Automatic annotation (TrEMBL):
Protein name (Swiss-Prot/TrEMBL): DUF8042 domain-containing protein
Domain DUF8042: 77-182
Amino acid sequence: MKIYINENLIEAESVTDKNEILELVETKLDNEVIDIIYLDEVEVSLKYFQENELDLDRIDEIKFETKKVEQLITETLAEAENYLPKLKNALNNSAELFKEGKEADASDLLDKTLEGIQWYLEVINGIISLIDNKELKDKGNKILSDFTQALNRAMVSLQNENYDYLGDLLEVEMVEYIDKLSDFNQELLEEY
């Protein structure tokens, strides 16, 4: 079996286990992450490669395509930049629905919005852990901490069926934090 990293053949004759292959590949990465894996030209994710039983004896070639960490951060931040305004609109729409007494519709929309917020928070946490700029790291952690507290207040309001307060909280405080996250996202983009 031949193993490549970005078209470069690596010496790996003695490596037969997929965990050993990953360890070997990771030792050869320089400020990069694995983006895509090709098993005999079939594209799979890193997660698929890690979690599934693979008959490596039947594979002739494994190619690992990588991306520089900075490139991955930039692409993710650009995606988030387009996504945050949609979350803001969804929060405003949820708030409006709660105020109109349409709790079922509002709750459905809020659930979907919270999934999007969860994605963004995970992404930004990951990015914050990778950056070296202490000032930006501290600022990001503070915004995330405050935003999490606001999210907790929103969840308590939802559980207590205090829909008017929840609507106000979504419309004012949560939207304000989305704006702060959007500004922070922009600062990170300028940094990278």
